[in-house]
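Supplementary Note 2. Why include the ligand at all?

Several targets in our set were suspected to adopt different conformations when bound, so apo predictions alone were not considered sufficient. For every target with a known small-molecule partner we therefore ran a joint prediction. The input for adenosine-5'-triphosphate is given below.
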Amino acid sequence: MTTLRIKNAVKRYPNGALAVEGVSVDVEDGELCVFVGPSGCGKSTLLRMVAGLEDVTEGEVELAGRVVNDLEPADRNIAMVFQNYALYPHMSVRKNLAYGLKNRGTPKAEIEAKVQEAAELLQIADYLDRRPGQLSGGQRQRVAMGRAIVRDPAIFLFDEPLSNLDAKLRNQMRLEIKKLQRRLGVAAIYVTHDQVEAMTLADKIVVLNAGKIEQIGTPAEVYGNPATTFVASFIGAPPMNLIPAEAENGAIRLGDQTLNLGLDHRGPVTFGLRPERAHIGASGEGLRMETGVVEELGAIRLVHGRVGPHEITVTQNADQPIPGAEAVLRVEASDIHLFDAETGRRV
Amino acid sequence: MKYRQILDHVVLLFGVFLMMGPLVVAFLTSTYNHVTIHRQGMQFGWGGQFLDTYQTVLTQQGGFSGEITGLLMTQNSIILGIGFAVGKIVVSMTAAYAIVYFRFRAGTFFFWVIFLTLLLPLEVRILPSYEVAQQLGLLNSYTGLILPLIASATGTFFFRQFFKSVPEELLEASRIDGAGPIQFFWDILVPLSRTMMAAIFIIMFVVGWNQYLWPTIMTTEEQYFTLVRGIQSVMQQMIGADIPYYNEALAMAMLAMLPPALVILIFQRMFIKGLVEQEK
Ligand SMILES: Nc1ncnc2c1ncn2[C@@H]1O[C@H](COP(=O)(O)OP(=O)(O)OP(=O)(O)O)[C@@H](O)[C@H]1O
Ligand SMILES: [Mg+2]
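The joint prediction is reproduced in token form.
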């Protein structure tokens, strides 16, 4: 079953800015769907349209089989976790969790039970009588999630919930969010601009750019078969090398070098190669590369250099010998991505 | 370092002396007999008539009609001070709430119109204000004393700035939690504004307490006299007699200073505590 269906959603702000241009996404039951994209691409806007915090200019938002375009956020059966937590600073943690239930007219005993249950699930039961100002960042984050959980929503909405935490805590909370979401079995949308977060959390990734969808797929699909050069450069770190090239007679011409791949495409293309998929060696068949700066990262190293006039970066296991000034890149045909030079679409 | 500290203290002590000196002298003088004061001027010792004088001031029926006592005047002043301060807070908070959260079209325009009224203090518009109040039949009533004064551009401005600094997400979170506009105001904004309200209450209570011109014009019946007016009327009333009751006038001035000082002492605690806690 589908929990959420966004159909051709368009968002035009009153000042004329077109933030979302015709986006359609389905979120299935129990699925964790991540919206990822660079700053300003419209991910928050899209999420807020689902939440009901922004009007939908055109299109439909359908939640649990019901069009909710004109419903108030409180009537949509959603729960949202904000980037800066947005806890009520003057209320105790207990009251923060209970506030929404109280407004819905839930009986006192039931509120108490739900708050207790959520608090135990999130290990914040000891802080229930503290105020948010007396908690650490990670604890506040849990309280914010607790406030979402007690509502028993049809879908959780997260807007960059971890970006105020330090790196270590971020990794820990990321894992916890995923576990929690699995355990509750409730669908969720998670907005982030961090592709690592997107890859690790998602059942389904929606890559957004300038208000449009670039690709929807599982993390493996988005990584393995990027639909556009944008997705190719956005997902994966270090990013995919993208080099202008020419396809002709089943081969690819990169400057003065030619790679025989047995393709039947011709014309100008963008040649894509993931840094971790090139095998760098001292000699042999392949692309000649002039090496430059080498960065050691511990387990692997990054070798920067040039193929013809174009910059390229490849990774190498740290136990391999550091290549000399001239090296050769051995590349499998299946690891090469080709994109149309004009549209940026995969060919 | 040491010398710096000594210098600081000298400056502070000098300030205290300047501010408190006249008060102390006025208090000491008020404990003397009015004849002594008339002959020898202000006094620097303890006159021994403290209880007599203050009891007279508080309970003696004064004025032409004999309807008013010092206690009643204090009560009137407190009603005016609290009514004025609470009225200003209520009006300016609701106005600021409308301007900040209900982005109606001319919101900014109305804000500046409200702000412009700063250029038109009561003294400038006293005749038309009186005219309106008189036609509404508000002369000689507490409503007439308070209501025309409670519109406040300054208060609106402060609350507007404060509301603008409240994170937008709080509003959104409360919308998701099912709070309507009134609930958001009452459950979230009012508690968050406590320190602002305390600060404005302090300032406005003192301003209201010290009102002189407006009460003088609005009330002719002595039962509405405030302490500030009382001081003046004690002196005035005595002009015909041989020797004015200086001691009583001074005692009344001391009484008139007490409640504002208390309000500041009490609310300052809250104010500073709120500032330190940094809740937002
Ligand atoms: N209230 C608004 N009025 C007008 N334009 C807006 C408004 N809010 C956002 N925008 C514009 O809409 C576009 C998308 O904004 P949005 O906040 O959705 O981006 P985002 O993908 O969440 O970015 P970030 O990662 O920085 O949070 C941006 O170009 C932004 O300038
Ligand atoms: Mg955003």
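The mean pLDDT of chain A is 92. The two ends of chain A are 33 Å apart (CA to CA). Comparable summaries for the other entries are listed in the accompanying table.
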